């Protein structure tokens, strides 16, 4: 990431491109900072005040020494470099992000150092290194101007404030006050400000100082080397004696005579006083990263840094917050370097100048750094978007995390390994407050971030990990080590822990570290070099630990890359339509604990770009990071030939820490290249005379051109010529290079909505343009996301209908829905006028709700609503649910499980998606245009009419598939269900005097038995005005999930105790899902099979409005429960001349068994209901019933129907009597056991207190036999029994030995699977 891409072969390899000086322009004098004015303009616009009035006057409230004045680029050498054009605005803005600052002799004036980064449109980077110091103001005009400003300020204050109040009252009332860092000087110490308050600045007695910045702009982040060069340059100006050579010599030397070190080499060059060494990693090593990671870890603490790193990987919005620019850079660069082999693909502005604050409004992932004012509190910081924000307060060592996001795999062991590396360098690891989270209990289980107590921390560790905020001293380490070695208790503890296998705090590591330091100290290096070497070694070891996590996690990634295009051109043109990575197969190959993180991560832009680079590497040179990563994977493969450890989630530690540190040390021991020494230049004598404390005006003519005879500039020129020749040859072969380049840029920018903010010309027009890009980007993202959700979901349903392989898991679906929630939050927070609450969407909904309820009270009419469109044959009985956005909000508001606004918004989105009302609800929400206008600025996404329409249309497409994303996530909430029992439509059959009851079961549990009061008999009329009666009741119970069965029964009381029921309808009153449980049979003694209760199997009812519109793409129906044709009385089928052939019956049994086996081959979370496969239509019970009914003599003797159960009972009675007479004694022992088990089960079923009827009993016997793997043993007993001759024709399948043996073989295949029965089936059976 770190600039390795910035310096390509064509860019001449100079160490530094520009030397720049920024400061006050004495000609133009004091100018108030325009950017500050622009900032006020933006701020006024945000608050809805008149922006133009705000931007006119200067800020008289603030004391002049605290105001920001315009800085200018005073000089730059050379004027321009063709391969890296000078961006004056950006450099000026980032050298002095707060403009000029003034001080008097009473103030602290320590020099400051910071670095910055400029990212160009094409993603390449340039680094800037800045040394800021204070120089005395000699210009009388500026001193008098400052004096005048003070007089005006004092007069203003005297009139505005009565003397009682303090004269330094807070300045701005702005809501983003804490962001106004440009209007305040952060690092002024409080002690001196009190003295200034009394007199401020008086030119007669005070000396005025102003800030000046020296800056080096370089292609690679050699942070330490540049820092040392600049500080030596400044020292040359402030020291009492003049430097050995004119300053021009040193600047000329670093600009033109110091080359970039070659990969894998070190370089020595000379500053003003002492030599400076830097080195560059080799081609197989991790790319250059010179920012000290130890500092980032010390500032945040290991755990916090890992959490922020995880947020970065998942492309959330990350805002760093600190008073110190260099800290912002260190943490930002630290985190992005650790991403290897991936690269941050979105907005990256580690130092956000005050004028770019509107960028915090960006509805895209970003990594930005914001300078905080001294003494301002995080609570005052108003951020437009917080639902998906990771806020990192660097100075206070704490972080705030977004709600529910997954942990990094093996997080605990990972933190442990990092801590050990840090401890081995003597750096304590317990800094950083535990992360504060905005998490809701209603969030996805198992993903709310918690801070696991760092396990097994032994005493030694605690003592080692003293507070490390103040940096750590090597002396302290030695003392600790002596303490540990001299402590007998600790020695014993160490021995004990060694035996028990607990990791001891790394005393050995510390010992080694101290020893190593004492050896190194003798290597003849200065203390500064020592420190630098230590930092470099620590950096590389920490990065190796991170890199090795990715090498193990993605060791097999290549196997899942889909190479589908024949050449680069066709790949680039079809880039958007192509699947590049087989996500489902990849996830199915990963250990379970990794899935929550990986399923999110492989959806990110950085992962997509990584895979794109992999595919493009077939046709062009490998991207550098990819090359290093692939080489590491190959190396790991050599060592462990596809070890089984890849599937396991056991933690593999990094094995190459030592060698990586050695490479660095060796390069420093043996310097490969020494640059030319600075020397006298051919220039006019006497100019730029040395004057202590003042940086001289340098002679431009000698600094604007480099030497012509330089050997390495010549080297690059020949290399360049060679390259040109090669390019001309290849150009004829491939497509025109410009076109190709354009394609590449387009392909690479796919999905990146907006690369980088332009750091110049920030007129409101430019801001509007930027916002327009955001709007387009959001729309595109919405299109991609909805398309992905549809394709995945339909792919899965196609599988259920029998096409191909499944390619989405419940996990993946959840990930996609979570990212849709995140997108909606970002859309709703774009262009907000005033932010209220953490969730912009929920805040808008609340405004809408308040307004509608007010209108409702005025009109005293129900909430405006559209009648529910769910009408079907049962709708006569079911009162229709109204479609009401407010009603859905109230459901969510009544859920006590959800504690935060972000959680409520997500729950509401899930509910609307499940009800297929998301698009309709949002359309209704946005139809209140007055409200939208009040809440949003004119450039907001929600006020762009055309885009808004397209967005709603994309969401509408999600109605084509069924989601259960609300029911399946909020499993503990209470849900009202409406149950309607519909009798067959003859009035006489509908009446019953008995007391009915129901028990509803679903995938998550059952409701328990609920008595239905008799007085709820209702009368409705259908369209032909025929009356219908039905029984309807409403009850509340904990979420049952998808419904599976209903038990329906009555107590047989009264005269009319027989009841012919058509079906039972059950509706979830929150989601509107309606299930139909067909019955079509009598409940009553002495009628049908004498059953007083039945177990009915349900199916989801499709709202009829959709049946036509979405026919081609609907979710397949769940398997149905037995249809009425089978159930009216299966025994009478033969009488009707409707008879299945023996072939059809055998086929049905095979099909039923197959379906059960397929069920167990699905992932556990996606199996659905087994009950349907055992007892529904085309189920095992149904097929076996057909088998037993084949040529069954069910003749009606004296009007009494004979049932299969009668045959089973008779067979059992025969066996029992035979057993008593001793006939069965001769039979083989196991057969006797089987015989006993059959009798035992049949008697248990007969003695159950439930009145389940004969068919119900047969069903129960089959289910229990399948569960306990007894069916294949029972069949021969029934076949052998003489009763069979009386009750079956000769042609019956049951009397055909080969068929029965085949059936036994088929049933035995179920023995491999753990069949569990729903409680509703086996209730009351005592085995």
Describe this structure as you would to a colleague.
- It is a single chain.
- By secondary structure, the chain is an alpha+beta fold.
- It has 46 helices and 26 strands.
- Strands 1, 2, 3, 4, 5 and 6 form a 6-stranded antiparallel beta sheet that branches.
- A hairpin with a 5-residue loop joins strand 4 and strand 5.
- The radius of gyration is 39 Å and the shape is elongated.
- It starts with 17 loop residues before the first strand and ends in a 5-residue tail after the last helix.
- The relative contact order is 0.06.
- The N terminus is likely disordered.
- Provide the β-strand percentage band: 5-15%
What profile does the largest beta sheet have? 6 strands, antiparallel
Enumerate the spans where pLDDT stays under 50 for 5 or more consecutive residues.
1-11, 53-58, 164-199, 439-482, 503-507, 510-522, 712-719, 725-735, 750-755, 801-808, 861-874, 1106-1137, ...
Query: What characteristic shape results from the CA principal axes?
Result: elongated
Radius of gyration: 39 Å
Question: N- to C-terminal separation?
Answer: 68 Å
Mean pLDDT rating: 75
Helix fraction, binned, reads 40-55%
Find the structural class using helix and strand composition. alpha+beta
